[in-house]
Amino acid sequence: MDDLREKYLGLIAGAADEAALESLRVEAVGKKGEISLKMRELGKMSPEERQVAGPALNALKDEVNAALSAKKAALEDAALDARLAEEWLDVTLPARPRRGGTVHPVPQVMEEVSAIFADLGFSVAEGPQIETDWHSFDALNIPWHHSARAEMDTFYMARADGDDRPPNVLRPHTSPVQIRSMQEQGAPIRIIAPGRVFRADYDQTHTPMFHQIEGLAIDRDISMANLKWVLEEFAAAFFEVEKIEVRFRASHFPFTEPSAEIDFRCSWEGGKLKLGEGDDWLEAGGSGMVHPNVLQAAGVDPEVWQGFAFGLGIDRLAMLKYGIPDLRAFFESDLRWLRHYGFVGLDVPTLHGGLRG
Fold this sequence. Notes:
This protein is of the alpha+beta class. It folds into two domains: 2-86; 105-344, BirA Bifunctional Protein, domain 2. It is 39% helix and 21% strand. It contains eleven helices and twelve strands. Strands 2, 5, 6, 7, 8, 9, 10 and 11 form an eight-stranded mixed β-sheet that branches. It has a two-stranded antiparallel sheet with strand order 1-12. Strands 3-4 form a two-stranded antiparallel ribbon. A hairpin with a 2-residue loop joins strand 8 (256-269) and strand 9. Helix 1 (2-13) runs parallel beside helix 4, helix 2 packs antiparallel against helix 4 and helix 5 crosses helix 10. The longest helix has 40 residues, at 47-86. It is elongated. The relative contact order is 0.11.
């Protein structure tokens, strides 16, 4: 046994890699290893011999296994040290300029829009992206038979078996934020609600996930004239022109009455869009006076308070302002596209310092 101990402890100590170590393990304590075969011979010994040889063989086996484990750990530590030395990087070195990150157009435009509306006295409100059916539709005066509530248009969440409540939805618009804000703050109130929304649609100008911004202003004597002024001020500041004329077209939305589509005056010269001039009109979003049923659902007395609401697509605003042709590219994570359309990080848009980063 002393010979076996010296033999294998010496071989284990000199093993160069894990493959050699595994070979030694099989040779020593594997099913047909030398030490394992010795232990099988115990059955042929007398009881007196077994009392001496048994503990000695077990001790030898334990010692060899301990040596194997210790050597394996030492080899792993050596391999890690070698890898760390090879992959070492001085993190104090300055970053390479060509690897500098850029800000995606969507958060950039969100910051630009928020800066403009903050100057107009609006605060930013947020809400959950998984919404209740009530906040998304019922509270907004959207009837049960409306097409927006169909499964082909809205993403419904699964309910557990036996749960009879209406299923939650991935919010199809940021309008639920208006309901929650009025419930929490009451009136008067003046907010914008930018955020991510979801609808079952996908083509060059639609994606299943996109971004909206909605505005809400509730007070005692607000009118459509106030709404038009706010939109004109916003459009001129956002597109960085002196003035943009806004046109209302009569429309119908369940949550506003009267309702109006928003158009910006524009021109198309040589296929290039110019806002604020020309004889054409560009559809920008929807708006109107908040329906009394919506106010009542949010806990605001429609006999005392009134106000306007509007909705604009953030992705569409980014496409118009920065000449981005395809909405789908916003979400494809193409680094070349991001470098081309991205903005300088940490350069916060302000009205006095300029919106563009």
